Amino acid sequence: MRLVFLVMFGLAAVAATPFGNENEFCGKPPSEGSCCSRLNVFHDSDVVLSASTSYNEGHGPHRSALFQTDQDGVASWSARTNDGKQWIQADFGSPKTVTGVLLQGRGGSCCDQWVTSFRVIFSNDCKIFYSTAPIVGVYDRETVARRYFDRPITARYIRINPISWTGHVSLRFDLLGCDPASHDNEW
After folding, report:
1. Which among 37, 57, 75, 168 would be 20 to 30 A from 106, CA to CA?
2. Cα–Cα distance measured from residue 12 to residue 5, given in angstroms and rounded to the nearest whole number
3. What DSSP assignment string belongs to 129-142?
């Protein structure tokens, strides 16, 4: 995906060519110690997860961990509303370099729900956001889609914004990346 930054009506956006799984800084598969490792956002005590909405308290961001297992019939974050305004956010507290996304549908035996396309929206101040072009999501509940960006994103706030879905807006996720200072000279 080639990023082209645009500003329209005071909002910043990114236009891009089709998204791919391979790029010059991650390779396929990424090398050990590269800036393409799982950030484990769900298990990092410094990361605060939040969402635009949740179906109910049991379907909140705390259920969005990649490989989340069925707990009382719930194994994902699920939005309250099925529309393109929903998002789940990781607040790192300080900027991180993010190179890709791992995405999975709703787990468990309840429902066929997954995100088929999404955008990554990012910011350093939670006021001005930038966006990638649409990215292909997943095609079932259990497969993990690994989606790399063409260029790294360095930001404090990273949002996954579902655009299209099957059944209901539901997902499990993690991000790929590293601390910015650890790879400054690599790109």
Report:
1. 37
2. 7
3. -EEPPPEE--SSSS
Quote the pTM value: 0.80
Task: Read off the DSSP letter of residue 168.
Answer: S
Give the separation between CA 171 and CA 50, rounded to whole angstroms: 13
Q: Which residues pair with 173 in a beta bridge?
A: 65, 103
Helix, coil or strand: residue 184: coil
- Alpha carbon distance, N-terminus to C-terminus of the chain: 16
Tokens at 103, concatenated: 């995405």
Q: Considering only CA atoms, which of 2, 20, 1 is closest in space to residue 147?
A: 20
| Residue 138 near residue 172, CB atoms below 8 Å | no
* Contact by Cβ (8 Å): 31, 183: no
Residue 96 structure tokens: 């991180």
